[in-house]
Amino acid sequence: MKKVSLIFLALLALLLGWYLSRDRGKTNYEFLFNMRHTPASKSFSPNKVFSNGQTLQIPPEGTVPRGYEAFVASYDEAKTLTDPLTADEKTLARGQKMFEVFCLPCHGTEGKGDGPVTPKFPNPPSLLAAHARELSDGEIMHIATNGRGLMPAYASQVDTQDRWKIILYIRKLQKDNPS
User: Fold this and answer.
1) Does the N terminus or the C terminus of the chain have fewer Cβ atoms within 10 A?
2) What is the distance between the alpha carbons of residues 37 and 31, in angstroms, rounded to a whole number?
3) Minimal CA–CA distance to 103: which of 120, 78, 126, 122?
4) CATH of 85-176, one of 1.10.3720.10, 2.30.30.140, 3.40.140.10, 1.10.760.10
5) pLDDT digits over 34-92, tens only?
């Protein structure tokens, strides 16, 4: 029994000596390499792991992306909504940027409905017109979210917070251009 204890202590001392003397700048030896570095697969490549043979899987029913805020309001309910954000400099700058990306092609730089795509499509309504000024923030949000007429829905392209920021920017355009 003493011999086994001495061998165990000697092995323990060797292991401790190796551990303390190793180069800390080098990567440790990895016993299960695939546990840490999983092989990558392209989204549309075949995959034997899943029963349907596809790598890209449909998310389970009921899942939503992180940070997703659903805007579920009928048009009548939307009439009572007001923009929850305040029109500070940073918020308006983001609203302007998003307006220029998503709204400017049709509505133009000043919101007059004279964007660069209007020669090919019917002119959209001016955001400076009296009927646009009379819309509540919630009504504009409902239209931006679900679309109306030839205007497509932007719910999948512009997140909820950015849509509210665009509305603040539209209100600024309306204030800066009185009719």
Assistant:
1) N
2) 12
3) 126
4) 1.10.760.10
5) 666 777 889 899 999 899 999 999 988 988 877 777 777 788 888 898 889 999 999 99
